[in-house]
Design a protein that fits this description.
Blueprint lengths: L1 H8 L10 H11 L3 H13 L3 E2 L3 H9 L4 E2 L2
Parallel strand pairs: 1-2
Helix pairs in contact: 2-3
Length: 71
């Protein structure tokens, strides 16, 4: 577990503005919580891979054309 936390700390992170309208559209269309849709919206807009271990988010991300990393 400590190794996993150590590796996650190596991932660069910064705050990004959310396009709220697009995020809520993703949430509504996919029956998701807005919180989950925020990550999908940002990853799609910035053309970034999405790291998730959530099967549903991974499937939705793939339908949005995202590269999914995780289990």
């Amino acid at each position: 577990m400590l190794n996993l936390i150590k590796n996650f700390k190596l991932i660069p992170m910064k705050l990004i503005e959310i396009d709220l309208e697009k995020a809520l559209q993703i949430a509504w269309q996919n029956n998701l919580y807005a919180y989950d849709a925020f990550y999908l919206e940002v990853a799609k807009r910035l053309r970034l891979p999405l790291i998730t271990f959530d099967t549903v988010m991974g499937k939705i991300g793939k339908t949005l054309g995202l590269n999914i990393l995780g289990g």
